[in-house]
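tool_call: predict_structure(chain=1)
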Amino acid sequence: MNRPSNLYLEELLIDSNLFPDVLGKKKHKMIQHDFSKETILITGAAGSIGSELSKQLIKSKFKKLILIDVAESPLYNLIKEVEFENTQNVEFILLNILEKEAITNLFKRHKPTIIFHTAAYKHVPLMENNPYEAVKLNIFGTKLLADISNSFKVKKFIFISTDKAVNPISIMGISKKVAENYINLLSKTSDTIFCSTRFGNIFGSNGSVLPLFKKQIELGLPITVTHKEISRFFISKHKACKLILDVANFNYTNYHIFTFNMGKPIKIIDLANRLKVLYASKNVKIEVVITHLRPGEKLNEEITSKNEALLPTKNKDIFLVKNGNNINSSKLNFSELETITPYLSKEKIKSILRSYI
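tool_result:
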């Protein structure tokens, strides 16, 4: 992962299509994947990753594609985005993955063979203030979906994790790490092949820093950066989803964690300064203001923990994360997690969560 960050930043900016006024518009070339024998289920299908996976798969071969989300308007927007594609074997379903009966009924009706589980709460500061919701969706939503996939003998279950699950300090990161550990443990006694994919921030995704900067520029406001040294690993959603689909085609039988080539970490201040230079040509003066780290934010994210190492795969942009530790099954007795209610303090919920990693 040693590509020069300045060149990678330029690629990401162009790839984001957020600044066509200064960078032009990029048209993505869709790559066809062959899932012609598979019934594919995508949770969180209207989100940044889910919608891009959906668009790439709609242009590929598949037996059936089931796209579910609990967010009505984003799901409708996805329907409109792909209305001129061939959606003959595509179903759009409004559904909450926390509802066991609804999920079970969906599995009985459609019999999915591959699951891409992208549904999650991902916003770090927001989850610090709403830890109960993170526990419900990120942990128990994943557990329910994985358990039902196991009971229906689904072929493959691809869990979309995050680099924030590496040495996690935030509610969001810890909740994703607990979910990783659970599906790892479940995989040891399951016919379903489970895996996790970890990667950094999706460049230009909903709720990420780039759309925020764009909005601040449009409103004539200063660009706000939370720390001079803060950096993040970035990947375009087009590339991330292509690699997720590549992983789904890998031949593996045991649980694996995969991560992707994201170049070097990019300093957020460098991104802000690049936008300053770009807009200077349009006589737009941009001020950059340093604020402070938000709740749950790390200064720098990591790709591996001290017990993990990266191994190459047949795809140069995909790495296998080799873990030297066995999962302690006693830490995955969810009885204490099940006692969490909205009435517990944020500090108490976080303390309970920490005990599981």
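agent: The first helix runs from residue 5 to 16. Proceeding to next step.
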